[in-house]
Amino acid sequence: MNNIVRVKVPASTANLGPGFDSLGMALTLYSYIEMQQAEETCIALHGENLDGIPTDKSNLIYKVAQSVFEEAGVDIPELSISMYSEVPLTRGLGSSASAIIGALVAANELIGSPLTKDRLFTLATQIEKHPDNVGASLFGGFVATAWDGNNAHYVKIDPPKELEILVVIPHFQLSTTKAREALPKSLSLQDAVYNISRSSLLVGAVAAGRYDLLAAAMRDRLHQPYRAELVPGMAEILEQAPLRGALGASLSGAGPTVLALVHREETRKHELENYMLQTMNSHGLEADTLWLQPDHNGVQIMTKKHTDSFLDMVKGEVKA
Ligand SMILES: Nc1ncnc2c1ncn2[C@@H]1O[C@H](COP(=O)(O)OP(=O)(O)O)[C@@H](O)[C@H]1O
Ligand SMILES: N[C@@H](CCOP(=O)(O)O)C(=O)O
């Protein structure tokens, strides 16, 4: 058994417009988890993004780790867990998925990796209920996924290197559960065809580096129109961003974060950022902006000898 395991997990953006519960992309915004066996369970959460998360055995990381031990037939009831996260909670950047992936991979590594990555993907999807965010955090890059309730399938595509992602993160939380309650129970055939065709086009456009198709390919009639009321300013940004320098724009996951895909060499980046922020502000929302890139690796086990403390390791990573 390994003594101390540390993992670095990327955040993710799901759906990218039409690919509801199916498409995802990993982002260069990370959570760090350290896990080891202990005499008594102790969970230390660092940084303001984890405020309010329980530190007893009801913690998601602890519970997910126990599901790995159970599946592997190993008994490790007490754990010492430390976590630091750059990912804001409940904003549509896959914080729950990154916590689940971090916990699964750390726990599996702690007991010598008996479970395959594909098995971890299935377990993660069973817990998260949709494979888009967990697939991106696990495998990195851009993923097209499918889930039939028992098996999770995926294809990973390396997103073009010139792609940058501008996210505008409002200062309010919107739980995925609440954002799913806004969705209709059924769709017209016309809207289903609208989404299937754009989602297919989006996968092809990312694979082929066809930036010219992204704006059309990221349009959606399945969830964004129904979630628009929950995110003031979103509908306007989605219409306008492609006219102001974005390659395409979408709600990130279930929201409230809104994102734009932008070419690295786009000259109107600054104006686009101001436009998206001011539009949110004009609808009464305070927000932060961040420029990110696709993460190409997915979750990583930090193999360097752990001679420094967890927090010193995090400081070094976040600075770098
Ligand atoms: N590190 C963590 N430890 C425990 N629970 C977490 C952690 N990160 C996220 N969660 C849980 O996931 C919830 C957010 O998930 P969700 O509503 O799907 O939003 P998102 O995944 O977009 O941030 C949090 O309210 C919390 O319950
Ligand atoms: N496909 C899901 C994605 C939820 O992503 P999150 O980052 O908001 O948790 C949905 O749209 O409900």
TrEMBL record:
Signal peptide: none annotated. PROSITE patterns: GHMP_KINASES_ATP (PS00627). Its EC number is 2.7.1.39. It catalyses: L-homoserine + ATP = O-phospho-L-homoserine + ADP + H(+). One of its GO terms (molecular function) is homoserine kinase activity. Its main location: cytoplasm. Belongs to the GHMP kinase family. Homoserine kinase subfamily. Catalyzes the ATP-dependent phosphorylation of L-homoserine to L-homoserine phosphate. This is Homoserine kinase. It comes from Paenibacillus gallinarum. The lineage of its organism: Bacteria, Bacillati, Bacillota, Bacilli, Bacillales.
